[in-house]
Design brief:
Order of helices and strands: HEHHEEHHHHHHHHHHHHHEEHEEHHEE
Radius of gyration: 27 Å
Number of helices: 19
Strand order of the largest sheet: 6-7-8-9
Structural class: alpha/beta
Distance between the termini: 63 Å
Number of strands: 9
Shape: globular
Length: 453
Amino acid sequence: MSGKDWHAYGARLERLAHEQGLRFHPVEFEAVPDSFMMEVAVYGLPVRMPHWSFGVRYLYQLIHRHMGHSRLFEVVFPGNPGHAYLAAGNGPAENLLVTAHVLGHADFSRNNLLFQRCQSQVSDRIVEHAAEHARQIQQAIDTHGFARVEAVLDAALALEQHVDIDQPLRRGRYPGPAQPDRSAPEDAFRRRFAALEPAPAAQSPPARRSAPVPPHPERDLLWFVAQYGPELESWERDIFLAVREESFYFYPVFATQIMNEGWASYWHARLLREADFIPQQAYLDAIKCHSDVVRPAAADQQVALALNPYHLGLSIWEQIVAAQGLDAAFTIRAEDDDFAFIRNYLTRELATDLGLFAYSARDGRVRVLEADIDALREAILAPRYNFGAPTVLVENLAGDGTLELAHDHRVDGRGLDLERGRKVLEYVHRLWRRPVRLRTVDLEGRALEVRAP
């Protein structure tokens, strides 16, 4: 099968997907070199703001690929239109599978409510939007110098997970204290009363105290620094808000990974199975690729890898469709995120079938060590709380401008890497230009304060 044939089959797969009930925005497919694919996967977008941390991530991915732990077939960006980058090294049969997989992703992102909410606030043309952010940052580099801009990006990207997607993206500062009504009285009596001499000072109400900032613990650190940084310049504030905007875009991808990859895997298998126009050999090659993608263990080893979202998600979706039907699956796809998906639909029976419980093998007999399904669900979801970051809140803005933060370890049970925490505080301090304090606990649960400077 030639590349030309693949394009023709791709168009027919799109028509088949519509017939099967999938609804998606147009998707633009583009084959790109492997090196570009790696860059896109690491940066998260085809064009994004420059920063050294992306280079570190690139090396990590490159090492993993050379060790045989990962291979990139495609990278998808939801939007209208959606963008799908395919590895130029893919064979035609692999691209058939990838095309069907991408259509599943496109249906998920268009119809899932979390995606809809975040994309409506950011942009449904995120690729172009992020390119504009990169252009603005390049202008800032030209105007203020690379070192100053890098310091802002150090702080902003160190906080990129610390957003509050329950708050609107376009969010104003906290409201100030209510002001007295100074409109003119409407009737003669009220006008005469207003004209009387003011009461003696002793009878005056006490002076109004300003409201505390923040009025409640604030978990959107990017927003808070952008809005209340004592000496933050406008261009620095714009960079913080640009990073926050992109974090809003990435959050649904993070929070629905198991659902989304499972849904795309379910549909690429279903579409290929029902696409009777695909030559048999191409179908067999594509199905072999499918098996490689959704397997739960390494290729030539019986050693379990980290949880494979493709495998787990696909298994749950297959169970849902078999038990409740496709209409129920479409509803769950629209309404849930990974938290609801795992808690509601990962059953004890499925977990046992998938070998997710801890077990030991001795004398030829297998014994389950832990069969607590609730504990298993929470163990799977634990890394997904709060965008995968410790819960850190702005607790107070002191009178001298000191920024007081608190690590709410009781909520997420996640420890804090103290060395990394100190480095993040240093980054933030450079921009805040006042002392920064963080209350947390050590490994023994004893109170501890990290400071910069």
